[in-house]
Amino acid sequence: MTEIIVTGAAERRLPADRAIVNASVSIVEARREDAVRTATEEHARLVARAKELVAGGAAARYVADPIDTYSTSWRDERGERVVEYHASAGLSIEVTALETVGELMLDLAEAGADARVSWELSPERRRSVLRELRLEAVEAARAAAEDYAAAIAAADVEIVSVRDARGGSDGTAPVMRAMAMADGAAPR
Questions:
Q1: Can you give the pLDDT of all 188 residues of the chain as single tens digits?
Q2: How many Cβ atoms sit within 10 Å of the Cβ of residue 145?
Q3: Packing angle between helix 101-110 and helix 32-55, nearest 10 degrees?
Q4: I need a labelling partner for 111 at 20 to 30 A (CA). Which of 3, 121, 167, 184 fits?
Q5: Which residues contact residue 12 at a Cβ distance below 8 angstroms, ignoring those fewer than 6 apart?
Q6: Are 26 and 112 in contact (CB under 8 A)?
Q7: 114-120 and 81-95: which strand pairing?
């Protein structure tokens, strides 16, 4: 019995069906109260926009971070102590109506928020595609094993082991390693 070890891989490029928009505001003031007040107002505007998107069905959910504050101090050129108070807050919005992302990013930028977007597949779609890719990877490994068996004039190929070399749970394309036994093959 000859052992044939092959690798099968499958890959697919897909359009995202979710956008994760992260937005934050950061305020610097000479007085802590002013920094906190302004950050609270700006944060409230961000949260209101997120709630509007969720209520309208354009977003699945949002998560708002609490306001974070700290101060920095230094001596200026005259040796006087300068203190600045910083306040910042952010939120993350899972947008499902992708046609709204451009306008949302523009709105956030015009409101003075720092915003960035990342594109993703929904968990359901990711699981479904990974299942399909795993099947395709096993079929690719099986085809390669059959080709090698035919090249050495082996009669039948039986898969005896399948291993997922990369796991695939993080969205990477699965790579399968199949060990096949070929009957009647001449050892070399």
A1: 788 888 888 999 999 999 999 999 999 999 999 999 999 999 999 999 999 999 999 999 999 999 999 999 999 999 999 999 999 999 999 999 999 999 999 999 998 999 999 999 999 999 999 999 999 999 998 899 889 988 988 877 878 888 777 655 554 555 555 555 555 443 34
A2: 23
A3: 160
A4: 121
A5: 129, 132, 133, 173
A6: no
A7: unpaired
The tokens describing 157, both together, are 């190929």
Which has the closest alpha carbon to 56: 116, 99, 113? 99
Q: What is the dihedral of CA 119, 51, 107, 25, to 10 degrees?
A: -90
> How many residues are given for the chain?
188
